[in-house]
Write a structure and sequence with these properties.
alpha/beta, Rossmann fold, two-stranded antiparallel ribbon, 7 strands, globular
Length: 335
């Protein structure tokens, strides 16, 4: 009786041991598989694209060495127009503003500027290398996943170019387009259209011009420092001579010319075309030469005397440095 009991216990122990070994082996294989996955480049699960119409047999692979394009500038300077024109190109996808990218970049900038915070992060092992790697992964996920795949991916968050130098560091093959517009016209546009911008007091021309001057100075300085990677693009010239400036831009980006960039309005809202929110659709306008000049003349006639002459000279610096003359009426936009 005792011998049979021992035999049963032995069999039970063998069964339990076998099951334990099986599950431990399976768990080890899963861990090994996950480690292998993490060592591979980031892969998107998107298998089709409306932009090219191709059925992708392999996953869309993306990494920090992609030729990303960043469009920026002070709001109401033509960033949406530039984004729409590039989005019309069959090889390019920009998509709408993410809104989160400038905020995470501003947070990273804040950590770097605070000596005490940086010391605490370093002590915790959260070094610049760790943060840079995390920022690369986060920004790539947002840019890639918020739209369909394309040969060239771009991002249009106007204030992201406040961190142009940092973006050029973590994305070594990225290129940047800085949209520039006469600050007086930009401010008039944001105030007359009631375009809410964080930190801008739309009831004060003086405040808006001061904030415009500060923002464009930050971006313009970084753009000049990265001259081989950043192209300043004047909104007025893009409106008056679209083909000339789009050819120059596409050459700078190493993207083949396509006439579709001159007819973006025909692709708005269409599959693989230009995606616009209702607000952006309202704001986007590709004005003719005469319409553009009329709007500028009207702005100067009505607003210069009553608003700008009382703001002091704090905003003059960047208006002149970016190529606009303070003395001519109507303004001469031959930059």
């Amino acid at each position: 009786m005792i011998g049979k009991l021992k035999q049963n216990l032995l069999v039970a122990c063998l069964v339990i041991s076998s099951v334990t070994v099986f599950y431990l082996g399976r768990h080890a294989m899963e861990c090994h598989h996950r480690i292998d996955e993490r060592s591979q480049p980031l892969v998107s699960s998107l298998h089709t694209t409306l932009r090219t119409g191709q059925n992708l047999s392999t996953p869309f692979i993306y990494n920090k060495d992609m030729p990303l394009i960043f469009i920026g500038g002070v709001p109401r300077s033509g960033t949406t127009l530039m984004r729409a024109m590039l989005d019309a190109h069959p090889d390019v996808r920009c998509g709408e503003e993410t809104r989160v990218i400038p905020r995470i970049l501003a947070m990273k900038q804040m950590w770097s500027r605070s000596g005490r915070e940086k010391m605490r992060l370093d002590e915790a092992g959260v070094t610049d290398e760790v943060l840079d790697s995390a920022m690369q992964a986060f920004l790539l996920e947002i840019i890639v996943k918020h739209g369909e795949p394309a040969n060239y991916l771009c991002n249009k968050d106007p204030f992201a170019l406040k961190s142009l130098t940092y973006l050029a560091k973590i994305f070594p093959h990225a290129k940047f387009i800085l949209m520039i517009r006469d600050g007086r016209a930009s401010v008039h546009s944001m105030i007359s259209r009631k375009v809410t911008i964080a930190g801008f007091d739309l009831s004060s021309y003086r405040d808006c011009l001061t904030k415009w001057n500060r923002a464009i100075e930050t971006m313009y300085t970084q753009c000049l420092e990265a001259a081989d990677k950043c192209l300043p693009m004047h909104y007025e010239q893009l409106v008056l001579h679209p083909e000339k400036w789009m050819r120059r831009l596409l050459k700078f980006l190493n993207i083949p010319w396509n006439d579709a960039v001159l007819h973006h309005e025909e692709l708005i809202g269409k599959a693989g075309g230009v995606s616009l929110s209702n607000i952006q659709h309202e704001y986007l306008g590709f004005m003719s030469h005469l319409d553009y000049l009329s709007s500028v003349q009207l702005f100067y006639l009505i607003n210069v005397t009553s608003h700008l002459c009382h703001t002091g000279c704090v905003w003059h610096t960047m208006v002149m440095l970016t190529g606009y003359c303070l003395l001519f009426f109507p303004p001469k936009n031959s930059v």
